[in-house]
Amino acid sequence: MSQARDDVRAILAASIAAVDPASAVASHLCIENERLLLYSDDRMVHGVDFSMVDRIFVVGAGKATASMALAVERMLGDWIDAGCISVKDGYTESLSKIECIEASHPVPDERGMAGARKILDLLRQAGERDLVISLISGGASALMPLPPEQITLDEKRATTSILLKCGAAIDEINTVRKHLSLVKGGNLARAAKGATVINLMMSDVVGDYIDVIGSGPFTPDRSTFKDALGVLENYGIESAMPSSVADRIRAGAGGALEENPKAGDPSFSKVFNVIIASNIIALKAAQRKATELGCRSIILSSMIEGDTRDAALWHSRIAREIRASSNPAPPPACIISGGETTVAVRGDGLGGRNMEFALHAAQFIDGLDGCTIASIGTDGTDGPTDAAGAIIDGRTAEKAREKGLDIQDYIARNDSYHFHEKLGGLIITGPTNTNVMDVRIILVR
């Protein structure tokens, strides 16, 4: 089992390495003959002649954005006139031309709001002959908060906490956040109207919807105030929201407030959006590594979402099927999946969706020989902890019983971190400076 755990960790490491932000930027942006060329899927989508550019601004936010910015600085150097990015505490790089502001995630703070104001002010200076390079990655929604005047930062914090605990998916959370912001939902594109914008995104959302990644500050917003109100109603949290938040969303749903800019708005006429890294890239790298290690490897999907317990149950059933019938692949088999599940938090423990996935899986594969399961967040953080996720095997539940640990008790308290900590199952990578959702590995030997 020790070798199996080492193999799983190697597979996970390969998946993270494949979505290195600097490499992703370099593969989509290059300089040739005094022109900045933007590529998507090996096809050039736009070229900017430097002789036609007066100034270059770099802005952005997210957990991977500092590494993206470092790649842009190495490429453009002194051509950059000014820049400002907002990143999660510890997810930084040494930059010379671009100001890097560290802020709180997942609950926003004053530093993130100050960064958002600086970014907005910078973009408002841009003119028609200026170039804006935007670097958006997972976490941008929390790291770039700028609510309208009638909503305080404390009320925005409270709203974020309620949304994170209710079990809503990231697209639903961002639908609400986009309608409580002066920068999200295409509003940064509106601020930079007239300038050319190259918006590079690392996707941390199921389906890679560009208006959901970082709440789409430079993309047309497909959602409406009515959609945001629907999220509050569907999860029964409308009455729990600060009154200013609920009032704004109701007013917008009733037509009293202007919607965020939609497709066809002139604000987007010179905006070029390209996704430079996503979950499937990480999964394919994991598959290659598993094959190198002698496993028959299968990618289930990069779009797994929904309840974490349910996902753990059917992933575990696949593991048992492999052992029982050699389907969908005979051992040694490696089953790989990605996406992002959700947890409705009811307890007061410490944990995150990946550690909780592993906690549920531990009881579902209890006694299954030769099976190892792991789940991590590619950003190196699972919930408000220092762990990326956790790893378990068919003997984990037995070891828990020997130590007098009740798995159901830890599940009820949402205390997956301390369970895995006591059994040596935590996966701690430190900040990875990337973020493309989660990677799960099932290894059956």
Please characterize this protein's 3D structure.
This protein is of the alpha/beta class. The chain folds into two domains: 175 residues, glycerate kinase, domain 1 (3-Layer(aba) Sandwich); 188 residues, Glycerate kinase, MOFRL-like N-terminal domain (Rossmann fold, 3-Layer(aba) Sandwich). It is 37% helix and 21% strand. A six-stranded parallel β-sheet has the order 6-5-4-7-8-9. Strands 10-11-15-12-13-14 form a six-stranded mixed β-sheet, sandwiched between helices. The chain has a three-stranded antiparallel β-sheet with strand order 1-2-3, with no helix packed on it. α3 links the parallel β4 and β5. α13 packs across α16. The longest helix has 18 residues. It is globular. The model has no long low-confidence stretch (mean pLDDT 97).
| Secondary-structure arrangement, i.e. CATH architecture of the largest domain | 3-Layer(aba) Sandwich
Low-pLDDT sequence parts = none
Please identify which CATH superfamily of the largest domain we are dealing with: Glycerate kinase, MOFRL-like N-terminal domain
SS content category: alpha/beta
Q: Distance between the terminal alpha carbons, to the nearest Å?
A: 9 Å
Number of domains: 2
Order of strands across the main sheet: 6-5-4-7-8-9
Using the alpha-carbon principal axes, give the shape. Answer: globular
Largest sheet: 6 strands, parallel
Helix-residue proportion:
25-40%
Cα gyration radius (Å): 22 Å
Average pLDDT number: 97
**CATH class of the largest domain, please?**
Alpha Beta
Number of strands: 15
Strand content: 15-25%
The total of helices stands at 16
CATH topology group of the largest domain: Rossmann fold
